[in-house]
Amino acid sequence: MHKKKNIKDLGEISEMLTPSFARGAMEAQVPKYQMPQGEMLPETAYYLIHDELMLDGNARLNLATFISTWMEPEADRLMSETCARNLADKDEYTQTAELESRCVNMVARLWNSPDGEDAVGTSTIGSSEAAMLGGMALLKRWRKRREAEGKAADRLQDEKGLDIPIHVDGASGGFVAPFLQPEIEWDFRVPRVRSINASGHKYSLVYPGVGWIIWRTQEALPEELVFKVNYLGGEMPTFSLNFSRPGSQVVAQYYNFLRLGMDGYRRIHKASQDVALYLSGKLAGYEELELISDGSDIPVFAFRMTEEAKKSANYTVFDISERLRDRGWQLPAYTFPKNCEHIAALRVVVREGFSRDMADLLLGDFERHMEWFRAHPEHKPRKSGHSFRH
Questions:
Q1: What angle do CA 118, 122, 123 make, to 5 degrees?
Q2: Residues paired with 86 in a beta bridge
Q3: What does the pLDDT average to over 244-259?
Q4: Average pLDDT over the chain, rounded to whole?
Q5: DSSP string covering 299-330, please?
Q6: What is the DSSP code string of 102-137?
Q7: Domain 267-375: which topology?
Q8: Cα angle value 350/355/356 (rounded, 5°)
Q9: Digit-coded pLDDT (tens) for 252-261
Q10: In this model, does residue 192 exceed pLDDT 80?
Q11: What is the DSSP string of 24-40?
């Protein structure tokens, strides 16, 4: 959410963009929070925006996010070629819809959809929407069942023998476990699992904007939740919280599936896991730190200061996070949820594109800052970190 700015309260510097190029069209200042009265040249608008965006962090150094921050140039090109295609308009963009269907089939089989069961699924804007759709389907089926039994839909009775269906939110691990821990039975091999969702833009290696959900059978997705839309041309069934969205992320997902295959995904995730284990192992060597996890499940780990270090050190995890920003590293320091607020940790997410060499560079910067803390005993530790405010 963003708040409307009160322009009267802003100074000239905050209110205006001041171009620094000496071309005629850029001599005047440009308002930031209201539309300018006149037009400008396309390259003028481009450079105004381009130059401001240079202040953003380097996505490749962002170890806070699970989101994919690198794809191959060929995938970038395909996304650029298809960004204008509306995925909701399946009658017009039939081949894009076909690629979505192929991805659904690939994901269903990746998650061990049993032969002979009519699994059904769709792409979404991300794993959050996908999880909501899975919950909606379970809720609708539960209400119908309770109504059929003549019992109030809003009152669960304490009965034995209830068949409890499961929806699995595989947000990040759903595209890691099949490749690194295939022996773990968490998917449709578990009979109670009715649906699974995961993010396509995390460890399925696509840029932000795609998720996937698969239902075990057609029956698991109540028909009344599926809308049949015909105003874009042909009648197309759809189930989503969104409608119009670009087809480019689905195209990029199909590219990855086609390009990498099972072996490619396994190789990439294993390399990320190896880097995570290497990095966590090195950090575990600091007597002031202790690991909460080490990256042996998904290529993500967290660490915190030991209880002894918290009592005597002149820094906290928030200080470490802040100082690492001097070279662009983004490692989030945060406190745990309610009842565990006393635990403050740093998290490292290792993704494709973060190499062993980059891990060594991070470790070098980490040691440099630890030496700084040792050399400045007068430093006062921070109790919390910066939060982003709109």
A1: 150
A2: 246
A3: 95
A4: 88
A5: SEEEEEE-HHHHHH-S--HHHHHHHHGGGT-B
A6: HHHHHHHHHTTPPTT---EEEEESSHHHHHHHHHHH
A7: Aspartate Aminotransferase, domain 1 (3.90.1150)
A8: 105
A9: 999 999 999 9
A10: yes
A11: GGGSS-EESSS--SS--
CATH number of the domain at 73-152+160-261, out of 1.20.120.1730, 3.40.640.10, 3.40.50.300, 3.40.190.10?
Answer: 3.40.640.10
List of residues 6+ apart from 47 with CB closer than 8 A: 21
Record the tokens describing residue 179, joined without a space.
Answer: 């490749």
Lookup: tokens for 339: 């009842």
- What residue segments make up the domains of the chain, in order of their start? 7-56, 73-152+160-261, 267-375
Place of tokens 């696509």: 206
**Whole-number Å distance between alpha carbons of 129 and 353:** 27
DSSP per position, 212-223: EEEESSGGGS-G
Residue-wise pLDDT for 270-324, tens only, equals 999 999 999 999 999 999 999 999 999 999 999 999 999 999 999 999 999 999 9
327-356 average pLDDT score: 94
Q: What is the C-alpha to C-alpha distance for residues 102 and 27, in angstroms, rounded to an integer?
A: 52
Residue 14 has pLDDT above 90, yes or no: no
How much is the CA Rg of the chain, to the nearest whole Å? 25
Report, as an integer, the average pLDDT of 141-146. 80
- The whole-angstrom separation of Cα 17 and Cα 29 is 6
